[in-house]
Prior knowledge:
Number of helices: 6
Structural class: mainly alpha
Number of strands: 2
Shape: elongated
Radius of gyration: 24 Å
Strand order of the largest sheet: 1-2
Largest sheet: 2 strands, antiparallel
Helix content: 55-70%
Number of domains: 2
Strand content: 5-15%
Amino acid sequence: MTEELQKLLDVCTKKQRSFVLAITEVGGKGYNNCFKAAKIAGAEGNDNTVRQTAHKWVINGKVVAAVSCIEAERELKSEHTYEIAVQELNQLIGWLKAKAETGNVQAIRAYLAAITEKDAITGLHKTEVKQTGQGLSITISERQTYPRKAGTA
């Protein structure tokens, strides 16, 4: 937990802090998620009362600031993880390419798997594998479309 987040949580009530942490775990600020998070945070009363409490908390400036801080930290971590994954795949692909060029079948399969994984993460390449009279032909080309962002399908 960063110092900034700790400061934001310190100005919240105990139940608001619990709500902030719960809402970021249950999947965001949707209607049902707010209800679930409020129940987890200890909101009391019947379902309508819990929904009213959830609404009150989700629009509270202190809660909004804390939730936004957590979401920003997660996005930053996700981007960092994405960059590391792409870098590691590039290293692996470079190593496997040299082995695959020798005709090693296992290396060819691993090379294709690594290229496919990189494509799934970045969306930057198009891989075509064709059977020819001389063996397999592997063509890797750049896509003409924009790459996907990290965390999107």
